[in-house]
Amino acid sequence: MEWYVEAGVDILLEDTPIDRFSELPPPPRKKPAQISAHSPAERLAKKAEDIPRPAPIVKAQATMPDGSAVALAKDIAAKANTLEELKQAIAGFDGCNLKRTAKSLVFSDGNPNAKIMLIGEAPGKDEDIQGLPFVGPVGQLLDRQLAAIGLNRETSYITNVIPWRPPGNRTPTPQETEICRPFIERQIELINPDVILLLGGASAKTLLKTNDGIMQLRGKWAEIETEKTKVKAMSTLHPAYLLRQPAHKRLVWQDLLDVKQKLSKSV
Ligand code: URA
Predict the structure, then answer these.
(1) Helix orientation angle between 174-191 and 66-79, rounded to the nearest 10 degrees
(2) Pocket-forming residues, ligand 1, beta carbon under 6 Å
(3) Which atom of ligand 1 is nearest to the CA of 134?
(4) Quick one: how far is CA 49 from the chain centroid?
């Protein structure tokens, strides 16, 4: 088990193994060329054709095409008038395959009336187990960072772009991100904070709609624009990255001081 976990195989999808190859349609058969009508080879080929083959398995839980999933996500997100309605809408949404492998919907933590909203990429293993964002070692570092500028989970609101843990912590695909975008954008509208802190490149690129890297984006104020609101946003390095590269903490410290100053000016 430990060997599997270390290899990234840390979730169980089904109770019994599935032979995915049996889902493939049988390969087209070639008629043997230039064989006389009565040759043994032709009789053999004819016999093989008569052997019944299992019908291809049609998966009951096939996911929706990405375009319709995005349209549905937009529709249900727009109809949510409160955070609770949005949470329920996401919980009932079946258009994102990440939901099938995640244990929990990781919606948010903290104070919905906070002036600051923090947005990470996607939940990890600890978050999936507890159903709350940033609760593992990465979250503990985030808590210390917040404390350093006089904030905590009662004075901030914390969430992720993607509300379900990608299996094995893999990077969410661009399609999965686009399917989940309406949910995070609606969440921003409903919280309508004074300031957003984008944690890491994935979150910054998605919400600022840019391909620039985090080293270019961090330390600069930008604006997140949704259909109904505009919010000032600072991008910074992800705390998971800082656990691996602690020397970069000084960059994040500069960004946090900037955020603190902006918050002190907001009414
Ligand atoms: N990393 C994230 O981006 N979000 C979490 O909730 C935890 C780790």
Answers:
(1) 10
(2) 120-124, 127, 133-134, 138, 160, 240
(3) 6
(4) 46
Which atom of ligand 1 has the smallest separation from the CA of 133? 6
154 CA to middle of ligand 1, Å?
18
Residue range of the domain that includes 150 = 67-265
CATH value at residue 166: 3.40.470.10
Q: Is 0.85 topped by the overall pTM?
A: no
Alpha-carbon torsion (122, 125, 130, 133), positive or negative? negative
Q: Is residue 201 part of a domain?
A: yes
Q: How far is the CA of 156 from the centre of ligand 1 (A)?
A: 15
Ligand 1 atom with the shortest distance to the CA of 200: 3
Token readout for 265 is 């000016």
Beta bridge partners of residue 117, listed in sequence order = 157, 196
Query: For every one of its 267 residues, what pLDDT tens digit does the chain have, with 9 covering 90 and above?
Result: 778 877 767 777 667 777 766 656 666 666 655 555 567 777 776 666 666 655 544 444 556 888 999 999 999 999 999 999 999 999 999 999 999 999 999 999 999 999 999 999 999 999 999 999 999 999 999 999 999 999 999 999 999 999 999 999 999 999 999 999 999 999 999 999 999 999 999 999 999 999 999 999 999 999 999 999 999 999 999 999 999 999 999 999 999 999 999 999 986
Residue 58 Cα, ligand 1 centroid: separation in angstroms? 35
> Does residue 129 fall inside a structural domain?
yes
CA of 30 to the centre of ligand 1 (A): 52
Which has the closest alpha carbon to 10: 78, 132, 103? 103
**How many structural domains does the chain have?**
1
